[in-house]
Amino acid sequence: MSVPRVVRVLGHPLHAILSDFPLALLCPSIFWDAIGVWRHEPLWWAISFWTIALGLASALVTAAAGLADYAAIPEKDPAASTATCHMAVMLTAVCLYAASLIVRRTAAPPEGAKLMAAFLLEGFGFLSLGAGGWLAGISFFITA
Asked: Domain limits at 51?
């Protein structure tokens, strides 16, 4: 049984289509938290909590599609090392956001050290998502 080079839906790579959801949900969470601190309104922390939770759930589906594509890359392919870096950076980002969710525990605003930890974890997660997205673009152009 051969594995397709890229899992496709209507001719479009599924992993690329699905990647928009975790990015759109995870990236703005740090901004929702900043608004929550600035305005002293817990609603923004709840929005951030649930967008992270949904972003992580959608990241699992996206990662599954990406893993299928990754498994189809031949060992000597020039894109293999870039795809490996992309996967590692994106998994790091997902772990950082998951740790932020664990630190929070609830949709209520964290206090003290948990507040700083949530911001740091989300900030590094945000940077990791950007780096992983950049690597995905590089990988795309190598294989195109």
From this structure: 12-143
